[in-house]
Specification:
The protein has 408 residues and is of the alpha/beta class. It has 14 helices and 14 strands. It folds into two domains: 179 residues, Glycogen Phosphorylase B (Rossmann fold); 166 residues, Rossmann fold, CATH 3.40.50. Helix 11 packs across helix 13. The N and C termini lie close together (5 Å).
Length: 408
């Protein structure tokens, strides 16, 4: 079997992109592939024999002196350390193909010409909209935003899209400008994987050629998730407690619909959301961060999960996990969410950012007969078993690798 050079900023389960990265490594390793990771050193990293090749840790939220901040700012644009260490790793392992996930800032695209020079076919999964929007989310302080379309990336500075900071927004503007002028992504990546059809269409709409864009959906290991079709009494939100996830709107809607809501996750808005729920007298409980069996149990015993996102989501794995556990989904009609919901069969959609629309959806679900909800849960599980399995994912992925010349 071939040797895959698997690249991502972090080598532990930090977020959705890291989960896909690490699970993908495990899947391919199980099929006989040799996996060589390249990442950043971090105290939480999984153990690996290749860690000495990793770049030194950078945490951009940490407090450094002005000189260190300046050096880190340069590394965002072009990391010589990452470039040199990757070349050493390639000399040692002779990879057949490289698969990149998130490389922005910590590794930087300085590694891309190294792969090209060494004749390594390169694939990159786009977990977000960073290559279109300097601030990742196409979300400005006023809401969903596409002002940077057509190369007008100065809008990231005008709107201070990065944490409402002029300095951070200016830095990502310069970063994006340099990378676009040099065409460092376009010239050095052979194929891009996009987990949602929405993202494929958005990149084409913004001027990208479709021949290098491949839709490969995310996946779940259905064998590890036992469905419970019996409807519970409460609804669940799981995700980061941040503005773009729409949790404020959800709490207002849950209160209006008089339903019980359990919120799973952490984030910068947690205290504000707790105060909001208390002030409304809403039946909302905060369960904090959950993972593994505890998370699966909370979902399994719910009536449905709710995704009230107010930004262009890609392809939330939480939907597939919920389906695998036999639970329908109530999702905002934004980004890649609607394509993962069969209306009236595996769940329903509502108007994003609209508390009344969400409240009506919650109330509708809350009055559904158990046999209807059970039918939805079964249809959801069957859909996952058909389209979003580990087997389907590995087949699609290896087909792409083969087209790029990797020996399987």
């Amino acid at each position: 079997m071939a040797n895959l050079l698997s690249i991502n900023n972090y080598y532990y389960r930090r977020g959705g992109a890291e989960v896909v990265f690490l699970e993908q490594n495990k899947i391919l390793e199980g099929l006989g592939w040799t996996i060589t990771p390249f990442s950043m050193k971090h105290a939480k990293n999984d153990a690996t024999e290749w860690q000495n090749y990793f770049v030194n840790e950078i945490e951009y939220g940490a407090k450094y002196g002005w000189h260190k901040h300046f050096v880190n700012a340069l590394k965002i644009i072009y990391s010589r350390e990452a470039k040199n260490k990757l070349q050493t790793l390639i000399n040692t392992t002779k990879p057949d193909i490289a698969h990149l996930h998130n490389i922005y800032h910590h590794l930087s695209p300085s590694i891309l010409p190294v792969l090209k020079k060494n004749g390594v076919p390169t694939v990159m999964t786009l977990h977000d909209l960073k290559l279109l929007c300097p601030a990742y989310l196409m979300l400005s302080p006023s809401g969903v935003c596409e002002k940077c379309k057509g190369g007008r990336i100065y809008n990231v500075v005008v709107n201070k899209c990065m944490k409402q900071s002029l300095s951070l927004s200016s830095l990502v503007f310069i970063e994006t400008l340099v990378h676009r002028i040099s065409k460092i992504y376009i010239n050095n990546i052979d194929a891009y994987i996009l987990p949602s059809k929405f993202f494929v269409n958005k990149f084409i709409e913004w001027g990208w050629k479709p021949d290098r864009l491949t839709h490969i959906p995310n996946f779940v290991d259905v064998d590890l998730l036992k469905p419970n079709y019996q409807p519970g009494k409460y609804f669940v939100f799981l995700g980061r407690l941040s503005r773009e996830k729409g949790v404020k709107t959800l709490i207002h809607a849950a209160n209006e619909a008089n339903i019980e809501l359990k919120i799973i996750g952490r984030g910068p808005l947690e205290e504000e959301l707790r105060i909001l729920a208390a002030s409304l007298g809403a039946n909302v409980s905060f369960l904090g961060f959950q993972t593994g069996p505890a998370l699966h149990e909370a979902i399994s015993n719910a009536k449905a999960i709710v995704l009230p996102s107010e930004c262009y989501e890609n392809a939330p794995i939480s939907i597939m996990e919920s389906y695998a556990l036999g639970k329908p989904v109530i999702g905002a009609n934004i980004g890649g969410i609607p394509e993962l919901i069969k209306e009236g069969e595996t769940g329903i959609t509502f108007e994003s950012s609209n508390a009344e629309s969400l409240s009506n959806a919650l109330a509708k679900f809350n009055t559904m007969q158990d046999n209807t909800l059970i039918g939805m849960g079964k249809a959801a599980r069957q859909w996952v078993e058909t389209e979003y399995t580990v087997g389907k994912y590995s087949e699609r992925l290896q087909n792409l690798y083969s087209k790029l010349g990797a020996r399987l």
